[in-house]
Amino acid sequence: MSPAASFGERWARDNLDREASPEEIQTLDLFPVTCGGDLAEAAKRARRYYTARGASGLTELWHRSHPDDEDILSSCQDAYIVPLRVRSVGGRRVTLVRLPAPTALDRPLCAHALLSRWLMILDLRLREDPTPGEEVVFIDVCDLQPSHLKNHFRGTYWKDFVWCMKSVYPIRFSEVHIINTQRLKTMSLLLLHIGLYPWRRKIVHIHANGEQINNAMAVDHFPIEGLPYEYGGKAGAMKDLNDEWTKKLLLNSKWLAMENQKFYETELKPQIKRARRKSAVRNICNTNASYDMLTRTHSCRSLYKKEDMEEGTHGAYRTLKVTDRHFHV
């Protein structure tokens, strides 16, 4: 392979048991950027990504849901997930989540359906735009009630999803903003904190009111032309934007199924573990210690004793007998 090969091409050659598609190479080339240029960490993250999407990975979230499943379609009406069409001035992607949606019934929200649909949307958007860029998420909880979160955080769905975004996916979530929390009852707020605890440090930011999104993005700025009406923008209503993504999921259901099957059947080559330098030095020392060493009675002083040596003809080697081995002197 050419020395100028990209990270994705080299990683695929060393780790996959099949030839990678051009789309896969583009996705793999995102890992070094996501890992801040650390190629070793990028290689580990890419391997975790393929493992998570494989047969022994996050099968509940990635492989056991389809866009036309009843619970997925119901989730489309219970919670809005809207990735915005344009990026911020700083090049960051923005996703708006309404949890629950105004059209949601007064019943527990299905965490499995919500997070599986979110992963499908992320995969589709990555296919459309396989370029680097951090992800900023806004979750609006103005209509959240305790009944919506009943058993919502039970199980490992949220924990697995958070781990996936932090340590696995080609795009990393840099910030998660929870807005409109002033209307929440104490129990709802407590459950929300418990569920999002793995994200809490440095990433999750709580906002009491529905302030302008651009105020929460600090020095970055998002064009109002790309924001929904509900947040001071001109891009359309959240419901309409959510319906567009629902249609997009259904239209791409075949592609999503093929992608899942491809990852499910992919086998990774065994990793070649290099011995650490300290271990190598220790092994050398142990090997040297195993040699038969000269005893005290056969020290240099004893070489002058005739009985210890068998004299040969002039110029021949003199042999010093030590145990069963012969050392040439």
TrEMBL record:
Cellular component terms (Gene Ontology): membrane
GO molecular function: phosphatidylinositol bisphosphate binding
Designated name of the protein: CRAL-TRIO domain-containing protein
Organism from which the protein derives: Bicyclus anynana (Squinting bush brown butterfly)
